[in-house]
Write a structure and sequence with these properties.
7-stranded mixed β-sheet; 5-stranded antiparallel β-sheet; single chain; 13 helices
């Protein structure tokens, strides 16, 4: 494989010449040259420009360039030079805080007055401070005991919204013939509704136990954690006779890293620092559908 990277700058506004100059100047200080590749393009929603870096950039170097891009209200992605758009056959993504604007479990907990307690565990887990996702989920779900099942519908109707660009991303992915997979450490109540709303080909999540119309504080069956997310992606790829290298993956928390690692393109969406620094693309300013520009 060539020993260089392809950089992609993404913005909602035209990409300033000063940004390009600043990126190239910083790269030169690192002993790396950036060469513009094809000029600036726009798809009507976003602007993008590609560059070839003469050498592979390490984590620290990438963060330096991302900081510069951020000062110009742009996001920066680092792609493999041998990656071809037609190689991508699968889109796999997380639900809570990636596809949608909330952590569903935190909002359900609000109906018991325990939102802050649950949210504290959720945040620590997503930052990677609590390593055992299964235990973290069990602890949080236990705090939901006694919540009326109607609360799930209320959360969906009143608090849940797809993040910017979600519908456009799924429509574009299906137009390209991608297999779309929603893999969540959240709950099937929500993934099933989003499957119907957005057209995902497959969803995997956890099932809350409900008895006599109330949550028992337990999860049924095996818990979907980071390892399970990665396994579901690998299984989907195997059915399509391809590998994870043929997938674009999207997530925001530490339990998404196993799924994202080794994929063709990994996208961190408004993600925790531990996820951003490992992901090929970090979206903080553009919407989810900007991912379509990476496979165009």
């Amino acid at each position: 494989m060539p020993n260089y990277q392809v950089l992609v700058a993404l913005s909602r506004e035209p990409i300033a010449e000063k940004l390009i100059f600043s990126l190239k100047d910083q790269a030169l200080k690192l002993g790396i040259s950036l060469h513009s590749n094809g000029g600036q393009i726009s798809n009507g929603s976003y602007y993008s420009e590609r560059f070839e870096a003469s050498a592979h950039l390490d984590t620290v170097q990438r963060e330096q360039l991302r900081t510069i891009a951020a000062s110009f209200n742009a996001d920066l992605c680092f792609l493999r030079p041998d990656l071809l758009p037609q190689d991508i056959r699968v889109l796999a993504m997380d639900m809570d805080s990636t596809l949608i604007n909330i952590e569903c479990i935190d909002e359900i907990a609000d109906f018991t007055g325990k939102k802050s307690a649950v949210a504290e565990i959720t945040e620590a887990t997503m930052r990677g401070e609590i390593k055992d996702f299964k235990e973290s989920l069990r602890r949080r779900v236990a705090l939901l005991e006694g919540v009326h099942a109607d609360a799930l519908e209320s959360v969906y109707r009143e608090r849940l919204s797809p993040n910017p660009g979600a519908a456009e991303l799924l429509a574009g992915a299906h137009e390209r013939g991608l297999y779309t997979l929603l893999v969540s450490g959240g709950f099937t109540f929500f993934t099933e509704k989003l499957r119907l709303e957005l057209g995902f080909k497959q969803t995997q999540a956890n099932t809350l136990e409900i008895i006599d119309g109330k949550l028992t504080g337990k999860v049924l069956g095996d818990i979907v954690d980071g390892a399970a997310k990665a396994a579901h992606l690998n299984e989907a790829c195997a059915r399509l006779s391809c590998t994870k290298a043929n997938a674009i993956t999207m997530g925001d928390g530490a339990n998404d890293l196993m799924m994202m690692n080794g994929s063709g393109i990994s996208v961190a969406y408004k993600a925790k620092p531990v996820v951003k620094e490992k992901a090929d693309a970090a979206f903080d300013r553009v919407g989810l559908d900007a991912a379509l520009l990476l496979i165009s």
